[in-house]
Amino acid sequence: MDERTRRNHLLVWLLLLGLLGLNIASSFLDLGIFNPILTTAVAALQAFIIVTFFMSMRSAAPVPRIAAAAGFFWLLLMIGLTLTDYQTRFEDIALGRLASKPGWEAPAAGRVPNPLSESGYSPVSRPPTLAAAAPDAASGERVYASVCILCHARGVGGAPRTGDKAAWLKRSEQGVDTLVDHAVNGYKGMPPKGGHPELSEQDVRNAIGYMLYAAGIQSPRR
Amino acid sequence: MAYRNAIPTPPGAEAKPAPQFDSLRQQYEADTLGMWIFLASEILFFGGLFMAYVIYRAAYPEAFEAASGRLDLLLGGINTAILLTSSLTMTLADDAVLPRNRKALIGWLAVTALLGTVFLVIKGVEYSVEFAAHLAPIFGRPFDFPEPHTEQARLFFSFYFALTGLHALHLFIGIVVVLIMLALAIRGVPRLEAKVTIAGLYWHLVDLIWVFVFPLLYLAAHHG
Predict the structure, then answer these.
(1) Does the distance separating the beta carbons of B85 and A13 come in below 8 Å?
(2) Which of A110, A161, A199, B115 is the most exposed place for a label (fewest CB within 10 A)?
(3) Which residue of A has its CA nearest to B57?
(4) Cα separation of B153 and B62, whole Å?
(5) Which CATH number goes with the domain that contains B105?
(6) pLDDT (tens digit, 9 = 90+) per residue, B158-185?
């Protein structure tokens, strides 16, 4: 039986066009998170059909099969490892660099811009110590990296994400003093001082300044 | 009957393997193995770009949705259908080689190259519209996008031009390869089966890559 008949080719082609139509149609529906999942799944199905029929993987010998499978296997490996990495360090993307974590020597840590402070910069951070969240003169970046990062890096519980300009613009419209008030005294899902009562109001203000800077907001409303 | 099904080589058949191979089947396996190793590297090459795009899209969903909405869904959809169709015609050309159906081979190769060219022309139209609308953050051109998504939209369009530009380059190479096959077929050169099959594998991969480029870039927005 010859599987490569003209009729089979036409059926495969019609199937591919049908899937394309399905994909386009799905973008007109609001399925929330399922929109990208559906379109990617349909694309993967199309790719599978192209590889199986047009690229004749069905009748390929074992060794070319292994070569092709290796390509897709490495691709999945790359996607899997990259996603696990980025899912755990969102703020790195937002800032385009590694944020200094407590206990780590920050590379070339120097002047951290802070739109809320007089000089335009947060005070230079002291050499990092393992005692996390040591308050006082800690710069906004250090407070952020030891406390706020927990929720704000990935938007836990609806927290505005670090680097998400749209979200922070909306928040900052209330004025910075309101933000500080909310962060110090708590506001909906936002615990008072991020759950660290040892922080001073200035620490919290610095941390907010840092997150505004990270979101690219230069001169927020007071 | 197709090259790949010629096991073992029928005695006295016109299709004989190249001297270094025992059978057509062995020759076919060697050809496709080499090609698939190259294609696997291509998959990883584009896969890295897709990966980077997906990460930023997950980071800035609203901005990427807004930016994706500025792409021309109609032209993109038509282009996808054109490319899928060109894979069909390439397959038909492949199937015409061994039966020595020269007319069909020439015809399908020509149609394939033509469809690829139409794709590039449509892509060019899209590019020119986007350049005029200041949506192309390349070559130092002005970029306009409403706040607050300006910077993230610049990122989206950088991905857009990188992905579609690299894909267009691959497609252009594919068209040149198909045109070479066409010239060989017109001159009646024998032993085209391996060449056409390999050219076909490359062509289908370029199609396969677009099958992901299209939903990632064009369908990131809601159109309802």
Answers:
(1) yes
(2) A110
(3) A36
(4) 10
(5) 1.20.120.80
(6) 999 999 999 999 999 999 999 999 999 9
